[in-house]
Amino acid sequence: MQGTIAVILVLGALIFFHELGHFIVARLLGVGVKAFSLGFGPKLVGFRRGQTDYKLSLIPLGGYVSLLGEGGDEEDLPEGFTREESFALRPPLHRMMVVAAGPIFNFVLAWFILWGLFFVEGKMDLKPVVGTVQESSAAQIAGLQPGDFITAIDGEPVIFWKEMTTLIQESEGRTLLFTVDRDSQQIDIQITPRLAENTNLFGETITTPMVGIGSRGDVVTQPMSFGEAMTEGGMQTLNYIKVTLQALIKIVERAIPLDTVGGPIMIAQLVSDGAEQGLTSVLFLTAIISVNLGLINLFPIPVLDGGHILFCGLEMIFRRPVSEKWQIITTRLGIMFLVMLMGLAIFNDLYRLFS
């Protein structure tokens, strides 16, 4: 039950924030909004304020903002609207801004979530305390021992294990000076990393400098001020965007197999599992899913926001709209592609579920 509620709340928040982006920018630019809906199909509950219907609809597979003139110039204006409010009559830059606002708000949501988490809970990661030292490794030969607390590398302080590994990987194999706290005594140890084959996040084999140590598993939390949390949240959001883009490119290149593609069932499972681990886990997952949703919607595929942005961009370049014929053809192709992609994702979800 807890997992089901978490799934509903997370998906609802993602859809709401995405559509809120379209709505806010449309209203700021003076575009008329006929309806703001969470879900599709028949209305369950709702109310009307001004000229806009706000409603919760039956099918919870998305949402929409219905703009005046969205399907073309309307001859018969609905009551309360003016011709100047028509989306179709707006310059392409305005239309592009309204469309792009949805995905951008997904990135903003991820930033807000991470900002809040870092401010409330601080930044948490593994502490750079050595747990294991591999036999005959560069670390063992240099004299590093289990229990050593690495405080700096080449004079640069390290607080988290991740910071230490980044400095090692960026060394390109040159000798590094490790400052170690051992039994409350500070010791300097020179270690020359060795190039070794490793597997990256995408399952690819890469060569990277390593010293041959493992973490003891200690966790450290660094409190963050409001401003520090804001900056760290933004940096983490950019990092999620970067990693997600890399993953999408790797899928296209077939470096990542297609059977790793997931859909709504996998998302529901992840959120449900995260709910068992606590609110923090659910919020981190929400931020990651929000970034994915924003990027996918920016794909230059008709039907998606990215397709509309592409059409507006072409209109700005060639000073005329893309012909209706090509819009229809590319929209049909886009729908076919999305149906096949969704079919693949659901097939993978079901295969993982039952295998």
UniProtKB/TrEMBL annotation:
Chief location: membrane
Record's subcellular location: Membrane
InterPro entries (alphabetical): PDZ, PDZ_6, PDZ_sf, Pept_M50_Zn, Peptidase_M50
Gene3D superfamilies tied to this protein: 2.30.42.10
PDZ domain segment(s): 113-184
Entry annotated with the keyword Membrane: yes
UniProt-listed SUPFAM superfamilies: PDZ domain-like (SSF50156)
CDD domains reported for this sequence: cpPDZ_EcRseP-like, S2P-M50_PDZ_RseP-like
Keyword Electron transport tagged: no
Ranges that cross the membrane: 96-120, 282-301, 326-347
EC numbers, comma separated: 3.4.24.-
Cofactor: Zn(2+)
Molecular function terms, GO-annotated: metal ion binding; metalloendopeptidase activity
One CC-aspect GO term: membrane
Keyword terms, alphabetized: Hydrolase, Membrane, Metal-binding, Metalloprotease, Protease, Transmembrane, Transmembrane helix, Zinc
UniProt similarity note: Belongs to the peptidase M50B family.
Protein name per Swiss-Prot or TrEMBL: Zinc metalloprotease
Source organism: Desulfovibrio ferrophilus
